[in-house]
Amino acid sequence: MTTYAVTGATGGLGGAAVTALIARGVAPADIVAVVRDRAKAGALVDAGVDVRVADYADPTALRAALSGVDKLLLVSGSEVGQRLPQHTNVIDAAKAAGVGLIAYTSILRADRSPLALAREHRATEQLLADSEIPTVLLRNGWYSENYAESLAPAVATGVFAGSAGNGVVAPAARADYADAAAAALLTASAGSVFELAGSEHLSYADIAATFAEVSGRPVAYQDLAEADYTAALVDAGVPAAFAAVLADSDAGAGNGALDSTSTALADLRGTPGTPFAEVIAAALS
Q1: Per-residue pLDDT tens for 28-64?
Q2: CATH number, domain containing residue 132
Q3: Which structural domain, as residue segments, surrounds residue 102?
Q4: pLDDT tens digits for 164-223?
Q5: Are 18 and 33 spatial neighbours (Cβ–Cβ below 8 Å)?
């Protein structure tokens, strides 16, 4: 029997990937959920998943958690700026434990993306190559849910602000990325690289129009210079360093960094993606 492990298994992407593995026929007992806080993993325990506690910063716990694992889904850490040392710990632990394959959730076109967010992903891809562990790269585009977080203030003010200009993005639902990750973990060959994105190509004006459609309230896109958008995010309570990263991502979107014509997401899943408007409507409800 093959044992599959998922890191960050109480997070949005990791948890959905565990659900997707089960939906694709993997017995819960053959899934290891690596979590930081067992208290948050009650649903996984109840489902019969093998829950093991290990923080990305704890090499000893990671080695124990990955013992006996055949295939690992390494969900990238959520702490921007800390990802590289964290991922190093996981990769080293996987190598010590004899893990046979790692699927890593990277970023769209990580090898050439201009986004600041891509730097740690690019470095992690190099770590994986240097480790000589067979690897599958899941280069995820933007989540539709990233825009859903802007829904409430946009509806309240009538303004969806950003710094993407007339750029176009191809977002997809988090659950779709998770399902693709599960499919890849089950079927993809080592060395595979998947550029994953949704099938809709949306300008920020289109996103504002979707906000208006699902809410029944007028919403218009306001394009700002990158520095002004950074300042607006800081004024809204976003930490300055992360605000700069978000504004950089918007500016990158303006240059096509978050758009793709790749059909790999739908091809891996074997089904069309979740419509953007459906994700936004669910967030509103």
Answers
A1: 999 999 999 999 999 999 999 999 999 999 999 999 9
A2: 3.40.50.720
A3: 4-141+173-196+260-273
A4: 999 999 999 999 999 999 999 999 999 999 999 999 999 999 999 999 999 999 999 999
A5: yes
Give yes or no for a contact between 215 and 82, defined as CB atoms under 8 angstroms apart: no
Amino acid letter, 64? A
Q: Output the pTM of the full model.
A: 0.96
Residue among 101, 87, 182 at smallest CA distance from 134: 101
Q: Answer for the pair 6, 33: CB distance below 8 angstroms, yes or no.
A: yes
Cα 24 to Cα 18: distance, rounded to the nearest angstrom: 10
CA Rg value for the chain: 19
For residue 278, what are its two tokens? 């459906």
Domain tally, the chain = 1
Q: Is residue 166 part of a domain?
A: no
